[in-house]
Amino acid sequence: MEQAYFCPNCRGNRTRFGVISQTIHEVQKDPVNGEVLALTEEQPFVGMSGAAVRDVKCLSCGFVGQETMFINHAARYPRT
Ligand SMILES: [Zn+2]
Known about the structure:
With about 80 residues, the protein is an alpha+beta fold. Helix content is about 10%, strand content about 30%.
C-alpha cells in the first residue's frame, strides 16, 4: 500500500522524492585472498520486519532518511 510522504527536515515537501531501494546478493568468498567464488542474483533487501528497506531523499532540501520517517511525519501532519 502506498503511503503519503512529508519531509521531516524542511517540512515543505510532500510531492518530490527519490526512493533508494536496497538490494542484496549473497557471495561466497575465498577466506585467504577474498576472491568471489559464487554469488546469487540481486534481490530486494527485506529487513527484519518483513518489509523492504528503503531510504528516501527529499528532492527539495536533500535530506535522506528512512522511509518510515517520511511516512510517520505525513501521518502526524496530514494534508487537509
Ligand atoms: Zn526536505
